């Protein structure tokens, strides 16, 4: 990567980071939802343990692990989509697209920003899980890094799809930034195994990288084994998803330049 | 760029949206260091032409060369040496003026960025505004900041879309004087879209009159005044807009 390319990426990161530097509500918003989720599901798990006893301990661990890891995907997706929407809302996209910034540099900046946003949201939630419920996510072992990586990539792929739809349909598609990944939750096997789903829906679930990550997580928590087959499937599926999203983004960006949508996007 | 070369060359430039022809096979060249006005009523094709020159919009047909670069193939090389200002495109409102300028300094890979900021603050009288959020500025202050953004990379080609729209006469005159000064000092090529005929008469060495996507007339302001037998460019504009016959 050339120095000018790195400076352009840094320029866009700087644009978003200075907003956080002086706005505590923005900083709070980053971790508010993950911490709230952790509180709700943590107390639920504690209640179940008190009623059912030790069998619920394992269920509680998979529940809390599921909540935390699913937030990784959600925050990664929203992080990319929000960076794009912030530019659209401030009617700044016109200036960015007439600068020498290449589309891939824009996407790189949004991805780095999403990682910053995701870690800023997830780390307090992990701390809350440990402090309030003595749940240590890092007990999953070094493989946790691979789970994180897969869920982040899936989030970016979905976000690129959302940004493509915003380029295609304008501000009318922005609600998808908040809702689209929630729609995949039932098929991602976050809180239950894929086998629980009806047979017809299981192939849908297995086409999602997230379902393989959560099957892998449960295998560690319940059986103490690392399911490398699920991890390999998650990486392979992510490669396909990310490539498809990149093609969709490139195509919609070109279509937006053909239709003149970059001039009026957000209006 | 050598003064005898054309900084902008446009050949057969066409933009079609379905059945609508927004720009119809226009041809023009802007010599290096010149200021050329793009005039026309609403919907004449000025903004579409500027958007194509900036690479925001892909033409349906035709070729654009800016500073010798083919915009269809090397637009990023050209964009690094160009810039653009329009009152219709904002800067992030919550960022301070200095932060906004730093963002664009990085996007344009400006060397000695803090020095350039200080230089622009001095030239455009932005000293007291640097720490204020861009969203809390008056229209005149915003125009000065937009100009600072447009000049951050010392562009060789500057595209201005109605640079003095919604400004009071005093501020508008200040901006025009400053643009004259900058052009004379830097040798920058300027393409100016405007509805302000006095501005065009004062700044432009040549004017392209656009109507329904076509260049219907062109020449220097004195040539056009003489051709239409008019006293000012506003009357020339009205003659063309209303299809009045030429007086001479």
Provide a quick synopsis of the model:
The complex is a heterodimer of chains A (267) and B (248). With 267 residues, chain A is an all-alpha fold. Chain A contains 11 helices and no strands.
Large-scale geometry of chain B: globular
Report Rg of chain A: 20 Å
User: What's the end-to-end separation of chain B, in Å?
Assistant: 38 Å
What is the N-to-C succession of helices and strands of chain B?
A: EEEHEEHEHHHEHEHEEHH
User: Could you give the order of strands across the largest sheet of chain B?
Assistant: 6-7-8-3-9-10
Order of helices and strands of chain A: HHHHHHHHHHH
Going by helix content, strand content and strand pairing, the class of chain B is alpha/beta
Molecular shape of chain A: globular
Structural class of chain A: mainly alpha
The total count of helices of chain A amounts to 11
Q: Helicity level of chain B, as a percent range?
A: 25-40%
Tell me the CATH superfamily of the largest domain in chain B.
P-loop containing nucleotide triphosphate hydrolases
Structure report:
The complex is a heterodimer of chains A (267) and B (248). Chain A has one domain. Chain A is mainly alpha-helical and 267 residues long. Chain A starts with a helix and ends with a helix. In chain A, helix 3 runs antiparallel to helix 9 and helix 6 packs antiparallel against helix 9. By secondary structure, chain B is α/β, with parallel strands linked by helices. Chain B has 2 domains: 174 residues, Rossmann fold, CATH 3.40.50; 64 residues, no CATH class. Helices cover 36% and strands 25% of the residues of chain B. Chain B is built from 9 helices and 10 strands. Chain B has a 6-stranded mixed beta sheet with strand order 6-7-8-3-9-10, with helices on both faces. A 4-stranded antiparallel beta sheet of chain B has the order 2-1-4-5. In chain B, strand 4 and strand 5 form a beta hairpin. Chain B is globular. The chains are: A mainly alpha (267), B alpha/beta (248). Chains A and B meet through helix 1, helix 4 and helix 10 of A and helix 1, helix 2, strand 6 and helix 3 of B.
């Amino acid at each position: 990567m050339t120095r000018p390319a790195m400076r352009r990426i840094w320029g866009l990161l700087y644009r978003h980071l200075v907003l956080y530097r002086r706005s505590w509500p923005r900083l709070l918003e980053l971790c508010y939802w993950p911490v709230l989720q952790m509180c709700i599901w943590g107390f639920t798990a504690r209640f179940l343990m008190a009623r059912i006893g030790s069998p619920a301990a394992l269920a509680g661990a998979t529940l809390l692990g599921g909540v935390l890891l699913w937030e990784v995907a959600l925050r990664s997706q929203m992080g990319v989509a929000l960076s794009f929407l912030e530019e659209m809302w401030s009617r700044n996209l016109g200036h960015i697209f007439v600068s020498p910034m290449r589309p891939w540099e824009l996407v790189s900046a949004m991805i780095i920003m999403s990682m910053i946003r995701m870690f800023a949201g997830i780390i307090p939630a992990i701390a809350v899980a440990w402090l309030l419920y003595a749940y240590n996510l890092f007990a999953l072992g070094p493989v946790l890094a691979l789970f994180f990586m897969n869920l982040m990539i899936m989030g970016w792929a979905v976000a690129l799809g959302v940004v493509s739809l915003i380029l295609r349909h304008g501000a009318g598609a922005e609600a998808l930034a908040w809702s689209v990944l929630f729609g995949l939750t039932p098929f991602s096997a976050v809180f239950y195994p894929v086998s629980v789903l009806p047979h017809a829906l299981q192939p849908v679930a297995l086409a999602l990288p997230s379902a393989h990550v959560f099957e892998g997580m449960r295998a560690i928590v319940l059986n103490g084994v690392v399911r490398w087959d699920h991890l390999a499937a998650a990486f392979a599926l992510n490669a396909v998803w990310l490539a498809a999203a990149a093609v969709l983004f490139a195509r919609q960006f070109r279509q937006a330049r053909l239709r003149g949508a970059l001039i009026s996007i957000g209006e | 760029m050598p003064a005898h070369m054309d900084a902008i060359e446009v050949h057969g430039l066409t933009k079609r949206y379905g059945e609508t022809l927004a720009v119809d096979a226009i041809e023009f060249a802007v010599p290096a260091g010149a200021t050329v006005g793009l005039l026309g009523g609403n919907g004449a094709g000025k903004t579409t032409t500027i958007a194509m020159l900036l690479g925001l919009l892909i033409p349906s047909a035709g070729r654009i060369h800016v500073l010798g670069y083919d915009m269809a193939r090397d637009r990023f090389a050209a964009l690094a040496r160009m810039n653009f200002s329009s009152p219709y495109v904002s800067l992030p409102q919550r960022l301070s003026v200095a932060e906004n300028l730093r963002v664009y300094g990085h996007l344009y890979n400006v060397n000695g960025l803090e020095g350039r900021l200080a230089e622009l603050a001095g030239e455009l009288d932005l000293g007291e505004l640097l720490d204020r959020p861009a969203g809390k500025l008056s229209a005149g202050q915003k125009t000065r900041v937009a100009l600072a953004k447009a000049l951050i990379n010392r562009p060789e080609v500057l595209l201005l879309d109605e640079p003095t729209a919604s400004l009071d006469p005093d501020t508008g005159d200040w901006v025009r004087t400053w643009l004259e000064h900058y052009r004379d000092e830097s040798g920058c090529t300027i393409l100016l879209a405007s509805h302000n005929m006095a501005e065009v008469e004062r700044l432009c060495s040549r004017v392209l009159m656009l109507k329904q996507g076509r260049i219907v007339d062109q020449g220097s302001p004195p040539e056009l005044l003489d051709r239409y037998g008019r006293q000012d460019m506003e009357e020339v504009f009205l003659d063309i807009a209303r299809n009045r016959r030429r007086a001479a």
